[in-house]
Amino acid sequence: MAAASLLLLVAALAVAAPDWTDCPTSCRCKWTSGKKTALCKDGAFTRLPDSLDSEMQVLDLSGNSISRLGKDAFKSAGLINLQRIFMRGTRLRQVHKDAFRDLIILIEVDLSENEISSLDPETFNGNERLRVLNLSGNPLRQLVQAQFPSLPHLRSLEFNGCQLESVHRDAFIHLAALESLNLKSNLLRNLSEAAFMNFAHLKSLALDGNPWQCDCELRGFRDWFLSSNLQSISLSCSGPEELKDRLWKDVAREEFACPPQVFLVPYPQVQAEAGGNVSFGCHVIGDPEPKVTWMYEGRPINHTWLILEAEEGLLDKWVNISVFNVSDADAGIYSCIAKNSLAVVSSNVSLVLPEVVTATTLSKSDPGLVWWASLVVGVAVSCSAVCTIVAVCCVKSRNNRRRQNMKASVSFTDQEKKLLDVSIATTTDRGTGSCEALGAEMELLEPPVHITIESEPLPLAVFPPPPEFSTSTLPAGAFGNIFISVSVSRDPTLDTSRCPDLLDLSHRAKPVYHGMATLPRRPCAVPQYDNMGPRVTAGGSSTLSLPDSTAELPPPPPPPSCAPLTPEFVSL
Questions:
Q1: Across the chain, which distance is largest between two alpha carbons, in Å?
Q2: Residue 330, SS3 per DSSP
Q3: What share of the chain is helix, strand, coil (3-state, %, to 5)?
Q4: For residues 258 and 286, what is the distance between their CA atoms, to the nearest angstrom?
Q5: Could you tell me if 109 and 134 are in contact, meaning their C-beta atoms sit under 8 angstroms apart?
Q6: Are 39 and 67 in contact (CB under 8 A)?
Q7: pLDDT tens string 318-329
Q8: Record's PANTHER family (predicted)?
Q9: For 370-404, how does the pLDDT look when each residue is reduced to its tens digit (9 = 90+)?
Q10: What is the domain class of 258-352 according to CATH?
């Protein structure tokens, strides 16, 4: 009786226990190769199914639309006993680094033909029994340093058609047991042989279908690959042009070369002061080793230059040149030329010095120009280009035509304008005295005025020169930062005693005046006398300028004998 009851209880429990073959409608659960397998291909799943038996060992979700695997994705679905996961073509874009955490018996993962653009290096951390990983058909672009954690049992790794452009030399450093690596149909131009030195068991390496650039960057890998006996298909060059479509084995290793690259410091122009020193640095990279030479204006340099060669290696070197006591003869174009078996490459640097240009702006033969003397105000243009012009002259004229052409100012009286006409006060050396002439007749001094222009050639635009310095008299490009000085030869026969120095004030120090005229001080209410006549008005004007003045004028004083003027005269 008791035995019958026990049998009934066992039967009831068996009926009540769920069957692992009970799957979601879109899945089929069955035994496959001795494994509990859930076949959920093309089942319109958008996330992992959560109603599968926890004892499921194989899960095939290929053809669904699962775009993301989040943290602990499989563990959260109760699928911790999975050994094989197939998610081919599921539009997968994001894979969390802990998506496969705690799947300690996982041995195979297929994530091919998805949209994974990057893979965290910690992905698959803890899945130490993983043997097969397929990532083909994902736009990964690059494999970074230590791309995978320690996977001591990984045997096969697939990257077919992943658009890989670069593979770090240490990308597979933790995959010592790797036997098969597929890098076919990517965008690889070169590889480092160091990336494969850790593989003691590598038996297959597929590399065809890549645009290999057969230059010095690929030479070391090419030598290793041809000697490794791993090639199943002969590889060919896609570049450079002279090696295109040639097989690696048919190209001598010396032809895997790189043209020189030349970098000048400083570049492209150096401005130096006369008498100074200047150095140029030439950094050259190339393989095979380039031969480096310096040229000046297309000619080999001579003993006036010093070449300093600082070797950093045969394929990466500096060749420097120094020029001492720079003069005009050293200005010009210097060329650093590098040559190897593949090409000749050069780069230029210009050494420039400030230019000096002299131009004559006044001529005695010019009948229309009888008087030229002024102060040309400096004009500031932009924050980096300044043009300052100072012109100072001392001349005499034959007539008073200049007086007629002079523009009157409403702030000047007639007497002041007369004074301005004859008082172009200038000085270059206060020790030699001034040469102002207060006579009615003036004549042009000889020789004509010469103006010296110093310019520094700058790549910036500057304010255009005044009309007196047109391009018809000066060479093109002479104006950068401009400084003008004017010198006039003095007439040794000139009687300086008839030329009182209007700026020679005894009561003050002698500052340097530039193009200043002397005018009477206005606030004078008492009559005073000077060589310009009496001044009696409160504003400082002469009574001769008053239209209806009937006041009796005192007799004029005798002519002054070139004595220094009184402090009542000030300079504007």
A1: 168
A2: helix
A3: 15, 25, 60
A4: 6
A5: yes
A6: no
A7: 999 999 999 988
A8: IG(IMMUNOGLOBULIN) AND LRR(LEUCINE RICH REPEAT) DOMAINS, KEKKON 6, ISOFORM B
A9: 344 343 333 333 333 333 333 333 333 334 444 44
A10: mainly beta
